[in-house]
Amino acid sequence: MSIRDESRPGGVSMDPIRVLHVDADPVSTAATAECLERAAVPIETLSVTSADEALDRLEHTEIDCLVSEYALPETDGLAFFDAVRATHEAVPFVLYTDSGSEALASEAIGAGVTDYVPKGDGTGADETLRDRILEAVEAARDRSRRERKLRAVETAREGIGMLDDEGRFVYVNRAYADLYGYEPADLLGEHWRRLYPDEHIETVRDEILPMVMAEGSWRGETTGLRADGSTFVEAHSLSTTDDGDLICTVRDVTDRKERERDLERYETIIDALGDPVYTVDSTGHYAFVNDAYAAMTGYEKREIVGRHVSFLLDDPSVAAGEACVRSLLSDDSERQRTYEITVETSDGERIRCEDHLSLLPLEDGRYRGVAGVVRDITERKARERELERYETILETIPDEVYTLDDTGIITEIVPPINAEETTTGYDPEELVGEHISIIMDDEDIATAETEIRALLGDDDHDHASFEMATIARDGERHPNENHIAALPTDEDGRFRGTVGVLRNISDRKARERELKAQNERLDRFAGIVSHDLRNPLNVAQGHLERARETCDCADEDLEAVAWAHDRMAVLIENLLTVARERDPDPDTEPVDLAALAEDCWRHVETDAAELDAETDAVVRVDRARLTQLLENLISNSVEHGGADITLTVGELDDTDGDGFFVADDGSGIPADERDEVFESGYSGDGAGTGLGLAIVERIADTHGWTVTVTEGDDGGARFELTGVDLVDRPRTDGDEE
User: Fold this and answer.
1) Which residues neighbour 248 within 8 Å (Cβ) at sequence distance 6 or greater?
2) Average of pLDDT values for 157-177?
C-alpha cells in the first residue's frame, strides 16, 4: 500500500513509518518527535546523537527514513550521508539543520540527499519536515514496489510481453522470447503477427482482440509459431492497461492434452472402483482425499486436507505407516505394502481397515509422499485426482481391472496386486485382444450392455454395478460384482468402450444363502406359532367361556385361566412380530403424534390409567410401526407402573435433541436394570413376555432413532426417542406469530 491514499483524510494511508533522527540536541529531537507523532500516519521516531550510533542502528533496525542535523560530533551531515549510502542505497535521507545556507542546500542536493529542510523558528519547520518525510517514504516505497514487480516479471517462468496500441512489442521477458525461439531484443518493435501461423491470424485479429478491447481481458488457448517454423499449443491470457497497452502471458501446454487423456482413463477406473483413496505428503499431512474417504470418516474433504494423519489415525497406525514408508524407501524391489490401521470417524467410531500403501514417484530422488487405498473389513473403495496418484493407486488395488473397446474386445486387464495371472486363470496377455465372452456368458454381457446404454443416456450417473459370474479357464464360475463405467468419448463424441472392476463376492453369496435359509426357518417357525399355537389357544378360550356358563368353579380360578390365555396370546403376537420383522426400510409419512397416541390408547387395555398427549409434533414415520411402538410402551407402563398411572406423551426440549418421550408416574425402572430392559426375554417382574421393549428398540433402530430409558419428572419410567425426523406443522390463519 502506498503512503498516499485518496480514500483517507489528507490522502494518507495508515502504513506505519519508522524515522531515525540524528541530532546531538535532545531538546530538538524531542520537539521533532512530538510533531511527527501528530501525523495522520503512525510515525515512530528513534533518536541518536552521533553518526556512528546511527550507522549501528541501521544495521540492526528496519528504518524508513533518516533525518540528520548537518553539524554532528566528529563529522558532518554530508559525510554521514556518504557513509549511509555505502551500505543503504534506498533509504530516504533528509538533512534537517540549523546550519543551513543556500550553498549547503545546493551541495546537499547535488550529493544526492533526498531533501533539505532548514529548521527555522517555531513548529512550522517540523511540520514541513513531516510532510517531506511522508513524500520521501511514499516515493521510496513506490520505487521498491516497481522494482519488485520488474524483478518478478524478469524472473517469471511464464512468458510475459507487452504490446503498444499498434500491436508491436515494447517489452518481452526472457521466458517469453525463449518460448518462441528468439532473443528478447529480436522481438522488440515486431508485430504480434510474427508469432502466429497465417491460418490463425484472422481468428486473433477478428475475434480475440475485439473481445479484449470490449471486456478488458481474455483467456484461452491459441497456436504459437516458433522461429524455426514449428507450432505449439499455448495457454494465452490478454489484458489491457490504462495506457492502452496489451499485456500478454503465455505457457506451452502442448503436452497437456495427452496427459489429460491419460488422466481421464485413470479417473474413469478410480471412479468405477468407488473405494476410499488418499495421498499424504512427505511431512505426513493429507494432500488429497476423495469423496469416499471423506464419507467413511464423516468429515468434509476440506476438513481433512492439510491435517496430519494423526487427525484420523491412532498412534500405532501412524507408527505402522511410517515403518512401511521406510521399508519401501530402503527396498527398490518392493513397490507396495499392506498394513492394518484404525480410523476414528467424526462421531468417535473406530474402524479397523487395511491400507494398501505405495510411494508417489520420487522427484530428483527425494521422497514426495504416499498414496493409499483403504479397505475396511467388508468392502474397498478408491478414487484419485492426478495422473501420478492414479497410476500409483492402480498398483495398490487388490481387485481385477479391465478395459474394453466399443466392440467388446479386451484392450487391457490388470490382475490383482502381486498376482501373475488373472482370477480366471489366464495370463493377461492371453486375454488382451479376445472378446469379453471368453470370461462372461451372454446373459451377463446383455446386462452390461443395458447398464452402459443407461449410463450414456443419463448425465447424472457415470458408473453402475451389477452381479455376474466370471468363467475360469477350467470352466468354473465365480460370482463377482462388476463396477463399470463408460470411457470418455472421443473428440467426435463417439463411444470408445468401457472400464470395469471385478470384485469376488463368493463370501457374500455364501452369507446370503445362509441368511435365506435362516429366513426360511423363521417363516416356518412363524407358521408353527401362528397355526399350531393359536388353534389350541382358541380352543382353550372357547372351553373357558362354556365353563363360565356351566361350571361351579370359583371366579378367581376362571379369571386366572383367562389371564393365562391372554398372556399366551400376547406372547404369540410378540413372537410373530420378531419372526416376521425383517424389512429394514420403513414406509414413512407425516403422522400427528398426539392423535396417533390417543388412537393407540383406545386399543390397549388401560384400566383406570389416564393419557396426557401434550404435543403438537408431526413425525415422519412408518405409521404401522409407530402404532406398534406406542401400544407396546403404553402396555408396558400400565402393566408395570400401575393401573391408575398417568401416561404423558410429549416433545423433547431442544437441549435433548429432536424427538419425543413417553413417560409415566408409576413405580419406574431401577437404575441398574435400565441397560437390560430392551433385551429380548427380559421382564423386570416376570409378568411380561420380555419382547415388548425389544420390539420398541427394533422399530426405533429401523427408523434410525435412538431409544433410552430414564427416570421421569414425576418418578416412573421415561422413554426418550431421539434422532426423530420432526416435520414443521403447516401454519393456519389462527396461529399466532
Assistant:
1) 159, 160, 161, 162, 163, 176, 192, 236, 237, 238
2) 86
Domains of the chain as residue ranges with CATH: 9-152 (3.40.50.2300), 157-252 (3.30.450.20), 265-394 (3.30.450.20), 400-504 (3.30.450.20), 511-580 (1.10.287), 589-727 (3.30.565.10)
Spatial CB neighbours of 349, under 8 Å, sequence gap ≥ 6:
none
pTM of this structure: 0.30
Give the DSSP H or E segment for 702: helix 692-703
CA proximity to 70, closest of 19, 17, 113, 33? 113
Rounded Cα–Cα distance for residues 662 and 611 (Å): 10
Residues 705, 691 contacting (CB under 8 angstroms)? no
- Tell me how far apart the alpha carbons of residues 609 and 288 are, in angstroms, rounded to a whole number: 61
C-alpha–C-alpha distance, residues 213 and 574, integer Å:
80
pLDDT above 80 for 272 = no
Query: In this structure, what C-alpha cell is assigned to residue 716?
Result: 416412573
Higher per-residue confidence, 736 vs 485: 485
Amino acid at 170: V
Query: What would the 3-class secondary structure string for 11-48 be?
Result: HECCCCEEEEEECCCHHHHHHHHHHHCCCCCCEEEEEE
Burial of 728 (C-beta count, 10 Å sphere; 0-12/13-18/19+): exposed
Q: Given the C-alpha cell 434422532, which residue does it identify?
A: 723
**Torsion over CA: 569, 572, 578, 581 (sign):** negative
Q: For residues 567 and 508, what is the distance between their CA atoms, to the nearest angstrom? A: 41
Residue type, 411: T
400 close to 423: Cβ distance less than 8 angstroms: yes
Tens of pLDDT, residue by residue over 475-516, are 999 998 888 888 888 777 888 888 888 888 888 788 778 767
For 497, the grid coordinates are 468402450
- Residues 75 and 27: beta-carbon distance below 8 Å: no
The mean-pLDDT minimum among 115-129, 354-368, 537-551 falls in 537-551
Q: Report the alpha-carbon distance of residue 95 to residue 116 in Å, rounded.
A: 5
pLDDT higher than 80, residue 121: no
| Residue carrying C-alpha cell 492426478 | 386
Residues in the chain: 737
Q: Where are the alpha helices (DSSP H) in 300-386?
A: 301-304, 315-330
CA dihedral over 531, 532, 533, 535, signed as positive or negative:
positive
Closest CA to 417 of 399, 431, 402: 399
